[in-house]
Design goal:
With 812 residues, this protein is of the alpha+beta class. The chain contains 23 helices and 25 strands. The chain folds into 3 domains: 15-49 and 294-624, no CATH class; 76-206, no CATH class; 647-801, no CATH class. It has an 8-stranded mixed beta sheet with strand order 14-15-24-21-16-18-19-20. α4 (125-134) packs parallel to α10 (455-472). The longest helix has 26 residues, at 682-707.
Length: 812
């Protein structure tokens, strides 16, 4: 981000550099579009199978039934069930509004509980812009029937409607009116509205939640003869432990999904060691008053009590790349909490990066192409005081950009209970989950010269736009996954647009620029500059070729009445290739934030409570990640090929070249290995350069630097980098006499000469340093190629290579 121009100048690079990624794109397409699960699935959706169980329907929980207030508290102040109005009703009253059945209200509005009220947006410019940008006519595309035939849920009730806005697309996302939400920034119109009823307006988009009430207890074991009923010992606020009253709750066994698996199971729940610190139980009483659990959350996972605190500078990047998902299958039924950096405290806010992995084992998913793709989402985290215990804990919500799916997961902002902990469709019991919480000063509400500049708030707005678009399919009703449109690509698009909008806001305000210049030491000014540096690094990550995807650029500038654009070409995917696989984006973004001084908290769970022994957790991977050596080579190759080469990196490379020349030339002349400078023949030398750059320069650098050395992005320690560098130089030097002896006879007269090997050592060291200093393959290749060319055509190399009969020029 800069404060002087709306867009940073971008250099266009030759399209030939995209060619190495065509194969990777082809592989990724096959992975993303391949059937995800083994075996022939049952017809219909998993959502329909789940709805066959009464406990998965709102009608199972009468609003008149209330649990013991000593044991259970309301999940939120305002809770409601969204109801899609009829076409007649929306024709009579146009606009983006829905009905909401109030399931819980604060004491001041308790009389509204049980009523069905009109719900609309508050009169705020940001909300008005949101509605205007995403409202669209819905006409189902021809592909809708095929997508439904694959078991995916589509918003059929929206088909044929005009000007469907974000509220109506949320209420109509499922075939039944069963979306339960938390309402925030609620305003009540006490006077009757035009339709004779009280109205509500909200200042924030609804938050999807599960469970009307919540209690905290330790599960003691099942009730004899009732496998779904469990004895629970509740938390005692006065004693600060689990010595409260004993209760019986129902944790229902969910029906198997269309693939024959349980999304969740109560098996193993009471014996899981994570439960020693208690479970948050979200749900409501059924008609007989038995509290039925709809979502479950492990208390231990969300407390500010890390299992390990690691030094960010030394162990941060290795933990992100390897430690976070290490040995995942063996962690089934366990959690892990790791902190990188400083301790957190009450009131802290953070960006959340969410990812989940795959389902392995005999009852798991089919793994295509040795790659576990997983999932990606952004979100927000806060450190709050728990309403039951009073202790600080994390409160997590996700911005889930989610395509059509069989489970009835609806794109939108979701509380942890709705996405991870929900027993019907949450992934806590069947997948490994990673939530990385990222705290950085610019994430606080930043006000500079009266201008509110919050990356978290802007990201939430842009994510809301993308989520609403996914719910309506941009009017087609269909949102599918492709290499260029997916949870990870479009989450990245939301982040890019958020950064771009903040940059434009700063550029369009001359008063802000003057204030920043006049107050360089102000805390807000320093935070703004830190945000600008972070934005620049994220730009390089999101646009790795220096060129913004056309659809992202267009969508960033869309205003009311203009159509959004979806990138559907291979070129679109390649222009944002770092965002194609969730694991890659998850690791790269966490690394960038860490390098800018963020404190990171990793919350990991692995198929809690682990009662289904037919499945095991699988970490998400990079391309071909289940073949670690090949996957590592592909990652190193991509990082080395497309590392950005800015002025600073080029300056370091030129400095290394100068030092190398200052050492190699005097040494060569003093030992008599190098002849005095004399250009033999310019034309033949120029013709030889392409071949010499290809081999030996490119071939040997790919082998001895890219394949062998950890890339600088891997965060290896200084000692490790020195050790790997020494090995690289040693093998590079040894390679030449071995090559002369085994397969390159023309080199026998030169490649065993000690003077040549000393030159080779200096060249190897220079290439190692150039690679480590830039992270790019090209500086060492050019350095290598330049050294070989000058030696052969200017410093007597050709003559030395021709000392034996029938020798041809070949590089050291």
């Amino acid at each position: 981000m800069t404060s002087t121009s709306p867009q940073r100048p971008r250099q266009r690079r030759g399209s030939w550099r995209l060619l190495p990624f065509l194969l990777l794109l082809t592989l990724t397409v096959s992975l993303l579009l391949a059937p995800a699960l083994a075996g022939a699935p049952a017809p219909g959706s998993s959502y329909a199978l789940a709805q066959a169980a009464p406990f998965n329907r709102p009608s199972h929980y009468p609003l008149s039934q209330r649990p013991d207030s000593r044991l259970y508290q309301p999940h939120a102040d305002w809770i409601g069930r969204l109801i899609l109005p009829s076409v007649t009703e929306t024709s009579r009253e146009p606009g983006d509004w829905v009905w909401v059945e109030i399931e819980h209200a604060p004491p001041t509005a308790q009389g509204l509980e049980g009523q069905v009220l009109h719900l609309e947006w508050a009169e705020r410019p940001a909300l008005r812009e949101l509605v205007e940008r995403v409202s669209t006519d819905v006409r189902f595309a021809a592909a809708a029937q095929e997508i439904e035939g694959q078991g995916n849920l589509l918003p059929r009730r929206l088909d044929g409607r005009r000007r469907v806005g974000p509220l109506q697309s949320l209420a109509g996302a499922r075939p039944n009116d069963d979306l339960i939400v938390q309402l925030e920034e609620v305003e009540v119109e006490l006077e009757p509205g035009a339709d004779g009823s009280t109205r509500l307006s909200i200042g924030r988009p609804p938050l999807q939640i599960s469970g009307r009430y919540v209690g905290l207890g330790r599960i003691l074991g099942p009730v004899s003869g009732e496998p779904e009923q469990f004895r629970v010992r509740h938390w005692s606020p006065s004693q600060g432990d689990f010595s409260g009253p004993e209760d019986v709750v129902r944790v229902p066994q969910q029906p198997r999904d269309r693939y024959g698996r349980w999304i969740s199971t109560p098996r193993g729940l009471s014996s899981n060691p994570v439960g020693a610190q208690g479970w948050y139980l979200y749900g409501a009483p059924d008609a007989e008053g038995l509290f039925t659990v709809q979502a479950i959350k492990p208390r231990a996972l969300h407390l500010l009590r890390p299992d390990a605190v690691l030094p960010a500078a030394r162990q941060g990047i290795p933990y992100i790349l390897r430690g976070n998902w290490a040995d995942t299958p063996r962690q089934r039924g366990r959690i892990k909490r790791v902190l990188l950096g400083e301790r957190w405290r009450l009131g802290d806010r953070a960006l959340l990066i969410h990812s989940f992995g795959g389902i392995g084992g005999p009852g798991g998913e089919r793994i295509s192409g040795f790659t576990v793709t997983g999932h990606f989402a952004f979100g927000e985290a806060r450190v709050v005081s728990d309403a039951i215990t009073g202790e600080p804990r994390f409160d997590l919500r996700y911005h889930q950009i989610y395509a059509n799916n069989p489970n009835g997961i609806v794109a939108g902002t979701q509380d942890w209970t709705a996405f991870s902990g929900d027993l019907q469709r949450g992934w806590l019991g069947s997948r490994p989950i990673s939530d990385v919480l990222i705290k950085l000063k610019p994430f606080d509400d930043l006000t500079v010269d009266g201008q509110p500049l919050s990356l978290l708030r802007e990201l939430a707005i842009q994510a809301e736009v993308l989520m609403a678009r996914y719910r309506s399919g941009d009017g087609s009703g269909v949102s599918t996954v492709t290499p260029s449109t997916s949870c990870v690509q479009d989450s990245s698009q939301a982040l890019y647009i958020a950064i771009d909008r903040l940059r434009r806001r700063a550029a369009d305000d001359p008063g802000l620029r003057r204030w920043l210049k006049a107050h360089p030491q102000d805390n807000a000014s320093q935070a703004f500059r830190q945000l600008a540096r972070l934005s620049s690094s994220l730009d390089q990550l999101l646009t790795p070729f220096g060129t913004v995807r056309p659809d992202w650029r267009h969508n960033a500038a869309v205003v009311a009445g203009e159509a959004f654009v979806r990138g559907e070409t291979g070129l679109d995917a390649l222009l944002s290739w770092r965002s194609m696989l969730p694991r890659r984006a998850h690791d790269d973004m966490a690394r960038v934030f860490l390098q800018h001084g963020a404190s990171l908290w990793f919350l990991r769970s692995n198929q809690l409570a682990g009662g289904d022994t037919t499945i095991e957790p699988l970490a998400p991977t990079l391309l071909l990640g289940q073949i670690p050596i090949l996957s590592t080579l592909l990652r190193r190759l991509s990082d080395a090929l497309f590392a950005p080469l800015g002025p600073a990196a080029l300056g370091r490379a030129l400095a290394i070249l100068a030092v190398y020349a200052a050492l190699a030339l005097p040494l060569g002349w003093r030992t008599g290995f190098l002849s005095p400078w004399r250009l033999e023949a310019l034309g033949p030398a120029l013709l030889a350069i392409p071949g010499l750059l290809l081999m030996p320069a490119l071939g040997e650098e790919l082998l001895f630097r890219v394949a062998l050395l950890p890339h600088p992005l891997e965060g290896d320690s200084l000692a490790g980098a020195v050790a790997w560098g020494a090995l690289s130089v040693g093998l590079f030097v040894l390679y030449h006499p071995v090559a002369a002896r085994c397969w390159y006879p023309p080199g026998r007269g030169v490649f065993r000469d000690g003077r040549f090997l000393s030159q080779c050592t200096l060249l190897g060291m220079a290439c190692v340093l150039a690679y480590g200093a830039t992270g790019s393959l090209w500086p060492p290749v050019l350095l290598h190629g330049l050294a070989v060319t000058l030696w052969l055509w200017g410093l007597g190399g050709r003559a030395r290579m021709q000392e034996l009969p029938q020798l041809t020029p070949r590089d050291p």
